[in-house]
User: Which sequence fits this backbone?
């Protein structure tokens, strides 16, 4: 038996062994245990004794039946689980320690309803009121299992209830060859809580199915408790979790899962969707205050109904921002930077640029400001999001979750009491007990700002209301937030002062919303920062003497954001001086007048600033640009792309675009670096650019009338107002078609018509912005033109007619179609001529025929204003012919006998030696239905044979409706209801005119191909169009994809 730790008490009557080991012995023991792969620490039981294992601790694979607390790292082999829950009402407390698996050597079998139970961190198959807290879990198939339908592990089919997972860090779990590995796998659990956890780097097998692994949290419900609305997977609370870098979605649910609340989660950088309640029964849930940005797929996607979706932020996702089914209340969400920001109904009061259902009440994503919520309802609003960690041992979760809304929208939310526009003081907005003693102070004109600072304590917030305050030598010497009402509203004027106006001498100070101005002594400066981890944002700082703003040597990890800094009268020390390390300097405007700009810091990120002329060439020991991005703009000077900084004395050109500045067209980024700034910003005049990206014509009536389909797209850098498209036929204006207003990269497709072909062809031109309504950056790329013509190379047709006006109508129709027609005798006469020189023989039979079997010949005749006489019809289905030199079109006849010869039944005729031309695509035999009455004749062995139920005869003439001649296939069907099956019927009597010459073949080409980034610079999708431009239908085939000349995969066509 292993000894237990000193100081752990046990019940009376149980042996107590006290561990007194010197440090060196403990270190060696841990090292040796780790070296052999066993558990290097253990879960010590709360009462000092683990009843079920008869010792003082649990180790890997044990079943836990009483509460226990980790006292070190537990390393588990690949052959089993970490710990298995074996009783109700227990707590497994990680105390900040690590539970480490060996997933590389494990197998991870399972399914969506049967989680992996061979090598998961903690498995609770069926027990209630279980708490798992403050534990780091890594390198398992699945981190935590909450419920299963596995009958071995859950023989009674029990449902886990009231389980809590909190304060855990779950990461680097799963395998790419398993579709059942997740961070947390919940099957059927109800009334449970998953809160304040961080989950990341979760792997799983991916092929596009909703059952696959790789989700941060996977939820699987059912209706086993009665119905979907009162089933399993319901009434759970998932809040304040941070989930990122998973192979699939952050949170994924299916098979119901209703009445859940998913709020205040930060879900980002996931391959599929941030939050994905996939099932159409994912109803009656609440999704609010989540940040669902920068996922490769959509931010939010659901097929459920009757949900509440509000106060969420979903920006810069790869697909949609927010998509929901109907009957979902979508209000006060912010979704910007996607092709379609919000899609669903009903919706109101949302910030976005693009939506299907007019969900954007605030149509402007270029003026976004942060808002701060009070999620836990303790009267304190969230502090700034940087470095925000929850109040737990591992510092995990998402505790500060500000939204980002259009400024007008934010003001409305603020006026409604839903949020603040300035950071609050709540460092853990998931816990109403924090910040507790922190206070908010208010300063009004006539009060002293310094006095408020002196009275405040660390963590407090001081609000300085609108007005002018004449103070200087303000020393912010405590870790607090000093918040004004905004630039040009809260003004601190140091008129007559010396030394400095404001000194930030403490760490963790926030200063925002001020105008700081006016010092008269030539040795003085407006603002000095000497602290670390400070945030100086959205201030107007100007009119110093020696300097305006200075960040001192030795400082680190400060943020200088969104400030306007200018004018130092003497300029003897520089208008702006930044020293120290690891700062972030962004979105600042540095004025042109008064002193140098001196950047002496190192290891800092400096981007999207507008620098004046006084700055020297950027130093190499800082990063002067962010990732090239043309979706998150505009940049600091109004250009479309984010990159580096704007330097007034940069003289480079802007003739190219793209991350490497090697693509045609300008983008507001200089083509050559400026020192260490590889993407310097240059002045850019944004303008729309309308072009026709696609145009195609399709026949309505072959050779006569047609429609035109086109796509107009704005490929420019600014939105385009409503305009029009002009259509010109043979250079003559035909009509205009309205075009809606188009955002950047937005397109509109339309189909217009009909148009009538004039002569043999039409020259068709489509012009975007036909009447020059929109001022474009490029007026030379608006048009697309092509020639559209009727098909050529018609067939030579021998028409065996009826001897009435129908013959003329069919002849005219065929000639209009481009075919050459020779009129033969009536079908009731003897035909002695040789028909082998014709491409096609068309036989029109008279008589009383049923109204069925109409083919494209008849349809075409009627479309031309003609028509067949009553009762007449021709057959051949949908222009689908078997190929070959000759075909024959015959009517469908009523069942009858001919000349007293009865129709026989249940016959099969086999083509002994199929003609390779005439029988292309046909089977070697036709089986006629048992009991049917069939009269048939078919060409056999290159001779025409007629089957009359009593034998065969041969003939080279067409006599009445009996047969074809020469190389003509024909068939008489005595009973329509028992004819050949549809497939062979169509093959035998296809549209012979289109296939007349036997030269028709399919022709498959790739008509279009584009690539789009999934993750910029890393992964991408390929979109392509395969089109049959030939004269015949093509069977199923495939498309092959080759990357750098190497085969990658095939895709069915």
Assistant:
């Amino acid at each position: 038996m292993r000894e237990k730790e000193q100081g752990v008490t046990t019940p009376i009557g149980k042996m107590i062994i006290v561990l007194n080991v010197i440090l060196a012995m403990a270190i060696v023991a841990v090292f040796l245990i780790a070296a052999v792969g066993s558990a290097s620490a253990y879960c010590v039981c709360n009462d000092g004794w683990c009843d079920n294992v008869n010792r003082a601790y649990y180790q890997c694979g044990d079943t836990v039946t009483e509460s226990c607390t980790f006292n070190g790292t537990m390393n588990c082999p690949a052959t089993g689980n970490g710990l298995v829950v074996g009783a109700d009402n227990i707590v497994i407390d990680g105390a900040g320690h690590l539970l480490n698996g060996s997933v590389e050597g494990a197998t991870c079998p399972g399914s969506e309803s049967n989680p992996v139970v061979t090598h998961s961190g903690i498995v609770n198959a069926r027990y209630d009121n279980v708490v798992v807290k403050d534990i780091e879990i890594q390198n398992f198939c699945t981190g935590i299992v909450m419920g299963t339908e596995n009958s071995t592990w859950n023989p009674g089919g029990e449902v886990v209830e009231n389980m809590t997972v909190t304060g855990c860090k779950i990461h680097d779990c799963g395998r790419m060859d398993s579709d059942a590995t997740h961070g947390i796998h919940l099957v059927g659990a109800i009334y449970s809580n998953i809160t304040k956890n961080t989950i990341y780097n979760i792997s799983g097998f991916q092929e596009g199915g909703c059952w696959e692994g790789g989700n941060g949290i996977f939820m699987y419900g059912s209706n086993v408790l009665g119905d979907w609305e009162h089933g399993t997977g319901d009434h759970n609370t998932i809040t304040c979790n941070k989930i990122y870098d998973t192979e699939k979605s952050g949170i994924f649910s299916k098979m119901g899962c209703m009445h859940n609340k998913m709020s205040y989660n930060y879900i980002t950088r996931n391959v599929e969707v941030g939050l994905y309640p996939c099932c159409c029964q994912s109803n009656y849930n609440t999704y609010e205050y989540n940040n669902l940005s920068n996922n490769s797929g959509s931010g939010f996607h659901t097929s459920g109904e009757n949900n509440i979706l509000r106060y969420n932020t979903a920006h810069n996702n790869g697909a949609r921002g927010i998509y929901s089914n109907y009957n979902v209340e979508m209000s006060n969400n912010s979704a910007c930077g996607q092709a379609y920001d919000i899609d669903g109904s009903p919706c109101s009061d949302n910030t976005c640029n693009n939506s299907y259902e007019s969900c954007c009440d605030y149509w402007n994503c270029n003026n976004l400001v942060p808002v701060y919520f009070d999620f836990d309802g303790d009267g304190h609003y969230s502090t700034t999001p940087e470095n925000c960690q929850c109040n737990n041992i591992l510092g995990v979760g998402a505790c500060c979750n500000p939204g980002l809304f259009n400024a007008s929208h934010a003001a409305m939310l603020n006026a409604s009491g839903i949020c603040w526009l300035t950071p609050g003081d709540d460092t853990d907005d998931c816990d109403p007990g924090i910040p507790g003693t922190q206070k908010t102070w208010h300063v009004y004109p006539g009060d002293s700002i310094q006095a408020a600072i002196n009275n405040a304590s660390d963590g407090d917030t001081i609000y300085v209301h609108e007005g002018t305050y004449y103070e200087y030598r303000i020393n912010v010497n405590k870790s607090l937030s000093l918040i004004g009402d905004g630039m040009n509203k809260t003004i601190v004027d140091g008129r007559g002062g010396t030394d400095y106006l404001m000194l930030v001498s403490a760490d963790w100070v926030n200063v925002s919303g001020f105008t700081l101005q006016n010092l008269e002594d030539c040795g003085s400066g407006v603002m000095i920062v000497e602290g670390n981890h400070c945030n100086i944002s959205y201030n107007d700082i100007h009119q110093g003497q020696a300097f305006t703003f200075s960040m001192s040597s030795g400082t680190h990890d400060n943020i200088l954001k969104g400030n306007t800094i200018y004018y130092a009268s003497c300029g003897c020390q520089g208008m702006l001086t930044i020293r120290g390390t690891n700062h972030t300097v962004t979105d600042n405007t540095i004025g042109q007048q008064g002193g140098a700009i001196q950047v002496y810091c190192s290891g800092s990120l400096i981007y999207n600033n507008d620098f004046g002329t006084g700055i020297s060439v950027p130093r190499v020991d800082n990063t002067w640009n962010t990732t090239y991005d043309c979706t998150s703009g505009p940049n600091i000077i109004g250009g479309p792309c984010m990159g580096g900084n704007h330097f007034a004395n940069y003289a480079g050109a802007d003739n190219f675009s793209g991350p490497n500045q090697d693509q045609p067209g300008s983008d507001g980024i200089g083509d050559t670096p400026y020192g260490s700034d590889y993407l310097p910003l240059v002045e850019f005049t944004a303008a729309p650019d309308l072009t026709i990206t696609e145009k195609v014509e399709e026949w309505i009536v072959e050779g006569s009338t047609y429609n035109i389909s086109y796509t107009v797209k704005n490929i420019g850098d600014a939105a385009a107002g409503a305009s029009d498209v002009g259509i010109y036929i043979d250079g003559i204006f035909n009509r205009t078609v309205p075009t809606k207003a188009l955002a950047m990269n937005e397109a509109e497709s339309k189909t217009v018509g009909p148009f009538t072909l004039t002569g043999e062809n039409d020259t068709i031109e489509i012009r975007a912005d036909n009447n020059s309504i929109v001022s474009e950056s490029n007026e030379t790329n608006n048009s697309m033109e092509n020639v559209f013509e009727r098909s050529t190379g018609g067939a030579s047709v021998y028409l065996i007619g009826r001897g009435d006006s129908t013959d003329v109508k069919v002849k005219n129709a065929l000639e209009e179609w481009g075919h050459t027609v020779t009129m033969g005798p009536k079908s009731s006469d003897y035909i002695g001529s040789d028909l082998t020189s014709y491409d096609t023989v068309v036989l029109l039979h008279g008589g009383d025929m049923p109204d069925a079997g109409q083919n494209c010949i008849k349809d075409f005749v009627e479309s031309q204003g003609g028509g067949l006489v009553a009762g007449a019809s021709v057959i051949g289905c949908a222009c689908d012919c078997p190929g070959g030199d000759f075909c024959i079109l015959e009517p469908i006849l009523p069942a009858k006998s001919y000349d007293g010869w009865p129709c026989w039944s249940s016959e099969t005729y086999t083509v002994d030696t199929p003609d390779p031309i005439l029988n292309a695509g046909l089977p070697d035999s036709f089986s006629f239905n048992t009991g049917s009455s069939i009269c048939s004749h078919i060409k056999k062995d290159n001779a025409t044979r007629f089957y009359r139920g009593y034998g065969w005869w041969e003939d080279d003439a067409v006599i009445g409706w009996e047969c074809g001649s020469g190389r003509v296939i024909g068939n008489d069907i005595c009973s329509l209801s028992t004819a050949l099956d549809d497939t062979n019927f169509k093959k035998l009597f296809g549209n012979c005119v289109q296939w007349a010459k036997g030269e028709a073949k399919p022709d498959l080409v790739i008509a279009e191909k584009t690539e789009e980034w999934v993750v910029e610079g890393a992964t991408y999708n390929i979109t392509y169009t395969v089109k049959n431009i030939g004269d015949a239908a093509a069977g199923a085939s495939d498309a092959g994809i080759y990357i750098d000349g190497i085969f990658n995969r095939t895709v069915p066509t």
